[in-house]
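WARN  no MSA supplied for this record, continuing single-sequence
INFO  ligand: S-adenosylmethionine
INFO  echoing inputs
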Amino acid sequence: MKTDKDLYRQLRVLSCEKLWNDEVALFDRSTPKERIERVAVIRAVGTVSSESGTAKQKAEVRSWLVRLLQDPSEKVRRYAMTALPKIGAGPVEEEALLSLLRATTVEREKKFLGQALDKIGGTATLSVVGGVPGFLPQTEQKVKASVARREKPSVIRMDSTLSDFTRLRIHLHCRKGLEEIVRDEVKQYIAKHGKFRIVEVQSGLVAITPVAPFSLADIYRLRCFATVGFFLGAVRSSNPAESADALASMMTSSLSRSVLAAFTEGSIRYRLEFVSKGHQRGAVRLLANRAYAMCPDILNDPRSAPWSMDLHPTGHGTSVELRPKLTPDPRFTYREDDIRAASHPPLAACMARLGGRVNHEIVWDPFCGSGLELIERALLGGVQSIYGTDLSPDAIAISRANFVAAKVKAVQSKFICCDFRDYAKVEGLGPRSVNLIITNPPMGRRIRVPNLRGLFGDLFAVAAEALKPGGRLLFANPLRIEPPDPSLKLKYRQVIDLGGFDCRLEMYLKLAG
Ligand SMILES: C[S@@+](CC[C@H](N)C(=O)[O-])C[C@H]1O[C@@H](n2cnc3c(N)ncnc32)[C@H](O)[C@@H]1O
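INFO  complex generated
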């Protein structure tokens, strides 16, 4: 005998018309026993019509599913309520689900009704669910969140100020190996603007604390960190389910609420993220329900929430941080387009700072891709001209567009499609013409490079020729390879995480002679 799944697979490939004209007609004529055997028809009709049905077909399917909510069989009703949210259900379908909820005494049916209402419920659901004993706690929260999302869409307020900042610790996360560059940028910022104090530097993290009222815009003036989190606390256990109450009370603490209130316009909603652990469905539900019981104004909502509550493994436990979800990152909105092997933008910003600022510089990126290193360097100031070369015409068009979007004033730019070894053919480039070569070369990972060692050997040779005396070559080096030319002297080397693999960030100085 065929299982429901087998039958579903067989029906799933049929067209909307065929399902409706043959299968639904047959289903409606069937005896109660046959209906239970062919219940997969309901699932297939829901899926296929949601994917390829016209508005009229979807409306017919919705009415059919609403009728099936009256079927004497609990299984048929369950399949119907599960299919409904897929095809754009609204208040009529919500009301049909709610009247079944009022009538049923079957716990399992309440659970499935809850799951359907999680997805399509609105204010009518909210007025009912509180009064239904044994109803799933997350339904009320999910429905509240989706009503809030529709009626009070939220945004992060970059410019509003947090005045109640005592006890606040802010974590600036970065890729491992870049901490010193992030710290130096923060130091320079503090020397100019005050507002923060550095508390600690750890692997992949610079911790700061405010010493004056501040806004998120103040923090986002720093370009080198990857993400920012407001530290809410930590527990000893690495299993969040074991410390659900402690974690939930940190998530809803007065500290958390004051940050959320200061920097959110609209409803306060967050997504739970288990950093480097993947999705943990059960733990998310547990924590979200506990937090909701403690503070029903802060809503768990995986869809377009302005905040993320990040649970970080700390080696000996778990910490909670509140992170504004700003996409696109307001610091890098000049990225009109992208290439597949684009640099991580904060890494490009770190490299630009490491390269240093000398006035009237001529800067060249031999493998410019989407242009991030050149743009970040130009944004720091002191640049006369930038040159980008790349083998890919698409990359050249993208870097050109990104540079225009970055609106850097008084910097001449030239983006040329060519092999970097032919640089001397580019007008303005030639031997001893460049102050800074800054680049994130192909690593042979995302895009295969036939002779990677040869390419890096050529990069050293070209740099030794193209740099002016005193000029710098700054690049991410995935190989253990040294320049054969003694006129390139190593000034800086640091192992960094390049997103899952280690690489050496290196800077060489071109000696005179
Ligand atoms: C890692 S990507 C550069 C990413 C870039 N920094 C960005 O932010 O988008 C390396 C680039 O080198 C280019 N490339 C590879 N071999 C090249 C060669 N021989 N000459 C010039 N460009 C080359 C590729 O087309 C690719 O765009």
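Residues 339, 341-343, 348, 366-367, 369-370, 372-373, 389-392, 395, 419-420, 440-442 surround S-adenosylmethionine (CB under 6 Å).
INFO  checksum written, moving to next record
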